């Protein structure tokens, strides 16, 4: 019975697709003393803030958060969507103003427009500020 089990495991490992997905990660490092929030956009060269409020990720001071993809970034950042935009916002601003006001005033701290080569050169880490 043990031999049959071992054979089954070996055959499955040789022919089955991988069981664990791999996450490809870009780190957003917050080197400021304030809590920030960010979101990503794939609409470059359109750098307007999204009309509908996106899901924002939080990054506390001296900490980092991750932007993850289940595909390699080489597969994600291909023409015409070959530039990733990261919008950095102050948590205080997001808490104080509605999204329409943030959008109309373009009230962001910083926007990064990064190509695949930029991200590789930065070792997959975006540092704010």
Descriptive report:
This protein is α+β, with helices and mostly antiparallel strands and 129 residues long. It has a single domain (20-128), classed as Sandwich (Immunoglobulin-like), CATH 2.60.40. Helix content is 28%, strand content 31%. The chain has 5 helices and 7 strands, in the order αββββαβααβαβ. The strands form 2 sheets. The chain has a 4-stranded antiparallel β-sheet. It is elongated.
Q: Give the overall shape, derived from the CA principal axes.
A: elongated
Gyration radius (Cα, Å) is 20 Å
Unreliable stretches (pLDDT < 50, length at least 5) are: none
Mean pLDDT: 90
Topology as a string of helices (H) and strands (E) = HEEEEHEHHEHE
Q: Return the structural class.
A: alpha+beta
What count of structural domains?
A: 1
**What CATH architecture would you give?**
Sandwich
Offer a few descriptive terms.
four-stranded antiparallel β-sheet; three-stranded mixed β-sheet; alpha+beta; single chain; 129 residues; 5 helices; Immunoglobulin-like
Summarize the structure.
The chain has helices at residues 2-15, 73-76, 91-96, 99-104, 116-121; strands spanning 24-30, 36-41, 57-59, 64-69, 83-90, 110-115, 125-128. Helices cover 28% and strands 31% of the residues.
How is the secondary structure organized here?
Layout: H1 2-15, E1 24-30, E2 36-41, E3 57-59, E4 64-69, H2 73-76, E5 83-90, H3 91-96, H4 99-104, E6 110-115, H5 116-121, E7 125-128
Parallel strand pairs: 1-7
Antiparallel strand pairs: 1-4, 2-3, 2-5, 5-6
């Amino acid at each position: 019975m043990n031999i049959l089990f071992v054979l089954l495991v070996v055959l499955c490992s040789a022919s089955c697709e991988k069981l664990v997905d791999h996450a490809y990660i870009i780190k957003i490092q917050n080197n400021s003393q304030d809590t920030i929030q960010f979101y990503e956009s794939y609409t470059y060269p359109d750098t307007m803030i999204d009309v509908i409020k996106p899901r924002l990720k939080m990054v506390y001071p001296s900490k980092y958060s991750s932007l993850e993809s289940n595909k390699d970034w080489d597969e994600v950042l291909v023409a015409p969507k070959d530039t990733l935009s990261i919008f950095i916002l102050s948590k205080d601003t997001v808490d104080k103003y509605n999204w329409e006001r943030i959008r109309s005033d373009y009230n962001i701290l910083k926007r990064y427009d990064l190509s695949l080569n930029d991200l590789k050169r930065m070792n997959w880490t975006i540092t704010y500020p």
